[in-house]
Amino acid sequence: MRRRIWALTLAACLALAACAPAASATTTVTGPITELDAAGLTSVRGFSLRDGQGNTWTFTVSESATDEDGRPVNASHLREHMALGDPVTVQFQREGDTLVARRVGH
Fold it and tell me: For the chain, what is the radius of gyration of the CA atoms?
């Protein structure tokens, strides 16, 4: 009887672990910024870029997102990249249907 209870408990724990959402892997994409959603001069809510294959990627910017130097992502800096057509590299994670930018650099 004890073995059966132990086996059922183990099976239940494994089933719950299998249903838990896995941590989203970080993915990277590079391209020029095509749209910018900013709140003022410095705060960035989101942006879109087009990769080398012509795909458009739209991101929400995490409040903790940084540039390549570890500073907060800055709307003015991204506007400069957008105006010049300079590509940026974005490290992001998928959270449901949302792509969340964690790091944005040259």
Answer: 20
* pTM flag (> 0.90): no
Separation of alpha carbons 32 and 86, rounded Å? 6
Residue 51 pLDDT exceeds 90: yes
Q: Is 46 exposed, middle or buried (0-12, 13-18, 19+ CB in 10 A)?
A: middle
Cβ–Cβ < 8 Å for 88, 81 = yes
55-103, pLDDT tens digit by residue? 999 999 999 999 999 999 999 999 999 999 999 999 999 999 999 999 9
> Using DSSP, how many helices (H) and how many strands (E) does the chain show?
2, 5
Domains in the chain, CATH or no CATH each: 26-105 (2.40.50.320)
Least Cα distance to 90 among 26, 46, 43, 28 occurs for 28
